[in-house]
Hints:
Blueprint: H1 3-29, H2 36-41, H3 51-63, H4 70-85
Amino acid sequence: AGQFERALPEAHLRATAMELRFLNEWARQMQVATSEFAIESTNPLRSQFRSHRIFLERLRARWDYPLPNEAERDAAHEFWKRILKGEE
Length: 88
């Protein structure tokens, strides 16, 4: 594997972390109290894939995200529902 292929997993984790900061800020602006990891773990576009669970484990290991509680997960589901409906 070349240098690009070796660097890709770490780059993907970093890009996802930046995306989650953005999405969590968006959720706050919508007055939805959730967490970055809850947003990622409930992402309806990604959670349908088996590999998403493995990616979540790598993401938590790399960035030490706490596991979301039930309220954070529920809020993240509401966030995605509103976003996908185009409410915000």
